[in-house]
Design a protein that fits this description.
The protein has 349 residues and is α/β, with parallel strands linked by helices. The strands form three sheets. The protein has a ten-stranded mixed beta sheet. A hairpin with a 2-residue loop joins strand 6 and strand 7. Helix 4 packs parallel to helix 5.
């Protein structure tokens, strides 16, 4: 049963990390608030590439999550969720449901939003992507880290039930070693705990600091988007769910939906790539415009299963498209080219 739904309340971010698709979108400055965007550029920029999920759509998403029996939601696929003008309002909405929130944030706004996060009992866990600070000017990075550590210290006292992960997902990256060493030093100074580098391995990634506060280490990963066998971008549906080239919008239009028409499964090149994934098993994702995608990494909707304003979430996750992909995972087959190009599943081994 799907127990988590990723709800991308915004794909706006105030950082431009080299390892994230947000970093590849031309934006010349960093902004902590949507209102900080220059007026002459804000409307065009957000309309073309960055947007905020409206309240009505958010309510549809959380209703859909409850409908399929999910217990946990996330507020991201891409984007920094605390930048949404209605972030606190959405926390209040969530508190009216049994759903719990795992909040993943870069922590740059925690000085402003920390109190509201601690006050919301809907928030079960907070993940801070502190590896993002390695690419910032050192003075800025240290200030953001201090704010995060202050939040952690306060949470230990006020919300001992709250799980917190300080993520360092850059193990092995030479350009991050200086920052990682500094961060371990600050953890020791703040909490009196030594975490020795070198203990990290694929089966040992989480290190307890104190209480429910953890350091979580991992390697960097590449966001899947390009079929490297052909060098071509995978076809993507637009915001109406229509093909951009009027051909088969994706492999599943032909291979999956055609099953009902008596056409046999026609995988690209009839190639079977081995592998598995937890998408459609433990989680599903909804993009800021309402498109439902199979995977929490499919930020551009390359495996669009449906639109939550046109079908309920239960119908979408039980559609022939979704079930075929899920069946492939169960049989250790990556049946979609997007999945075949994804390296994230290697973390499951």
């Amino acid at each position: 049963m799907i127990n988590s739904v990723y709800i991308e309340i915004t794909n706006v971010c105030n950082l431009h990390c080299s390892f994230c698709p947000c970093g590849k979108t031309p934006q010349s400055n960093h902004y902590e608030h949507a209102s900080d965007l220059p007026l002459e550029n804000a409307t065009t920029r957000i309309a073309e590439s960055r947007a905020f999920m409206p309240s009505e759509l958010f309510e549809t998403c959380i209703a859909g999550a409850q409908e399929i029996g999910a217990t946990n939601v996330y507020f991201h696929v891409l984007g920094e969720p605390t930048l949404h003008p209605g972030f606190v309002h959405y926390l209040k909405k969530l508190e009216q449901t049994p759903l719990k929130l795992t909040l993943t944030t870069n922590g740059t706004t925690i000085e402003r939003t920390g109190r509201q996060i601690l006050a919301s009992l809907a928030v079960r866990q907070v993940n801070f992507s502190t590896h993002a600070y390695a690419e910032l000017p050192r003075e800025t990075a240290e200030r953001y880290l201090q704010n995060v550590l202050d939040f952690c210290s306060l949470a230990i006292i006020e919300r001992p039930d709250l799980y917190i992960n300080l993520r360092l997902w850059n193990v092995g990256a030479e350009d991050a070693s200086s920052w990682n060493s500094y961060m371990l030093k600050r953890i020791h100074e703040t909490f009196g705990v030594d975490i020795t580098p070198g203990h990290f391995c694929s089966r040992h990634k989480s290190f307890n600091i104190t209480g429910r506060l953890y350091l979580h280490e991992d390697t960097r990963f590449e966001w899947p988007s390009i079929d490297e066998r052909t060098g071509k971008a995978l076809q993507t549906r637009d915001e109406r769910g229509e093909s951009r080239d009027n051909k088969f919008t994706c492999w599943h239009d032909r291979a999956l939906l055609s099953d009902a028409e008596g056409v046999k499964d026609e995988r690209i090149g009839k190639e079977i790539v081995t592998g598995t994934c937890r998408a459609l098993d433990t989680h599903v994702a909804i993009l800021h415009d309402g498109r439902v995608v199979a995977c929490c990494l499919d930020h551009s909707g390359q495996i669009t299963l449906g639109h939550i304003t046109e079908q309920n979430l239960a119908e979408i996750v039980n559609s022939p498209i979704a079930q075929n992909i899920k069946e492939g995972f169960a049989q250790h087959e990556l049946r979609h080219p997007f999945c075949q190009n994804c390296t994230f599943c290697k973390r499951f081994k």
